[in-house]
UniProtKB/TrEMBL annotation:
Domain of life: Bacteria
Keywords noted in UniProt: Oxidoreductase
Alphabetical list of Pfam families matching this protein: GFO_IDH_MocA, GFO_IDH_MocA_C3
UniProt GO molecular function: nucleotide binding; oxidoreductase activity
InterPro entries noted in UniProt: Gfo/Idh/MocA-like_OxRdtase_N, Gfo/Idh/MocA_oxidrdct_glycsds, GFO_IDH_MocA-like_dom, NAD(P)-bd_dom_sf
Organism name: Paenibacillus rhizovicinus
Domain annotation Gfo/Idh/MocA-like oxidoreductase N-terminal: ranges: 4-119
Record protein name field: Gfo/Idh/MocA family oxidoreductase
Length: 366
């Protein structure tokens, strides 16, 4: 297929792995870097031997670029996506799709009106770890799926991140920072969510930065830092998800477990592409399962390649905007349910994305 020409907006730290990987996929021709700081764009363009370094406005005006990869800060996600769509370009955006549900709807509505595609991180569910778990579930290895549980438990980023303030602002917190990885994995494994409820608290109204750059600075906390959620899936399965920046002493809890009528499945960290998969059948012991799918390295950018393939060949791309919006709505739903003391019924839905092709030598899990 003819490669799709791609430009990246946002040349900060996270962009480096994207630039590295986007140059590897045959579906893509990476042609431009853009940033509000033109010198930073020029630096990235020179580093990765790209022909063009732009301001954001210049990139949007380039008629050759078909996909804009939006790696800006979360508060700018919706605005840059809307700019790209108005310019007639498909867009792939880092997580989350937007900060508010209204912004997320605006992005999807404009894309639909213009016949353009929206894709969003996380794309880690396309990696070999979660795709192997998907295959085990589809092959009936654990029988009828009954429940899923996930835990993202940490002490907060102020001890290592040089500029951690945005994690504690509205639109931040552990749910909006890490929840997309877990909820996207949940949907890839079990399908869409019907309703959610939960409790959300700010355990520490102030936090002190201990990383070197701003050591000693005190931050005000504006968003919940410990969220315990319950999910009812359209399939009938029930899920739980805890995300926390308040478990300062550490945890021994798993990342994700799925339980079924015939067994249980240990799912690797959804912030990775690979990892260890373990299966325990009724009456048996935990056994490690060989991965049935590839893409187990840090394959950020694979969602862009998958969208490029769909643009050229037709069909739905997997990390699509409908799923990203469903995740965004669920995250807000946990906070709303805690505030209002009731279940939040989801207004959106999405399709469980198609599985990735398995390795030719992959075993079956009958």
């Amino acid at each position: 297929m003819k490669p799709v020409k791609v430009g990246v907006v946002g040349c900060g730290n996270i962009s480096q792995i994207y630039f590295t990987n986007l140059k590897k996929y045959p579906e893509i021709e990476l042609v431009a870097a853009a940033d509000i700081d033109l010198e930073r764009a020029k630096m990235r363009a020179a580093e990765f031997e790209l022909p063009k370094a732009y301001t954001v406005e210049q990139l949007m005006a380039d008629p050759e670029i078909e996909i804009v990869v939006n790696l800006t800060f979360p508060k700018a996600h919706a605005n840059v996506c809307l700019q790209a769509l108005e310019a007639g370009k498909h867009v792939y955006v880092e997580k989350p799709l937007a900060v508010t549900r209204e912004e997320g709807r605006q992005v999807l509505e404009l894309a639909a009106a213009k016949g353009l595609r929206v894709a969003s991180a996380p794309e880690t569910f396309l990696g070999g770890g979660i795709q192997t778990c998907r295959k085990l579930i589809d092959d009936g290895a654990i029988g009828q799926t009954i429940s899923i549980s996930g835990f993202m438990m940490g002490g907060g980023p102020e001890g290592w991140h040089p500029d951690p303030e945005f994690f504690y602002e509205v639109g931040g917190g552990p749910m909006f920072d890490m929840g997309p990885y877990y909820l996207t994995a949940y949907i890839a494994l079990l399908g869409p969510i019907r309703r959610v409820t939960g409790s959300a608290v700010i355990s520490y109204p102030e936090r002190t930065i201990t990383s070197e750059k701003k050591n000693g600075k005190v931050m005000k906390v504006e968003t919940p830092t410990h969220i315990a959620g319950v999910l009812d899936f359209e399939s009938g399965a029930v899920g739980t998800l805890i995300t926390s920046f308040d478990t300062k002493a550490g945890t021994s809890l798993p990342n994700i477990e799925v339980h079924g009528s015939a067994g249980s499945l240990l799912v690797p960290d959804p912030n990775t592409f690979g990892g260890t998969v373990k299966l325990r059948r009724l009456g048996g012991e935990w056994e490690e399962i060989a991965l049935t799918h590839g893409n187990t390295d840090n394959n950020r950018g694979i969602g862009v390649a998958d969208m490029a393939r769909a643009i050229r060949e037709g069909g739905q791309h997997r990390a699509n905007g409908a799923m990203a919006y469903h995740v965004l709505e669920a995250m807000h739903g946990f906070h709303d349910a805690s505030r209002d003391g009731k279940h939040y019924v989801m207004e959106s839905t999405c399709q469980r994305p198609e599985p990735m092709p398995a390795l030719e030598s992959s075993p079956t899990a009958s």
